[in-house]
Amino acid sequence: MTTPDDALTYVYAAAPLTTGLRDALMGLRGIYGSPVLFVTAPPGTGGPAPPLAFATSHVPRRDFNESALKNHFEDLEWLEDVARAHHDVVQALSTHTTVLPLRMATVYQDDDRAGQALAEQHDAFAERLAQLTAHTEFGVKIYLAPTAAPAGTGPDADAGAATTPGKAYLQRRRAQHNTQEAVYGQAQEAAGIIETVASRYASQHVRHPTQRGTLTGPVENVLNDAYLVPDAYAEPFRAAIEAAVGVFDGIRVEVTGPWAPYSFAMPPVERRHSAAGEEHGS
Question: Which of 160, 166, 213, 226 has its CA 20 to 30 A from that of 23?
Answer without folding.
Answer: 226
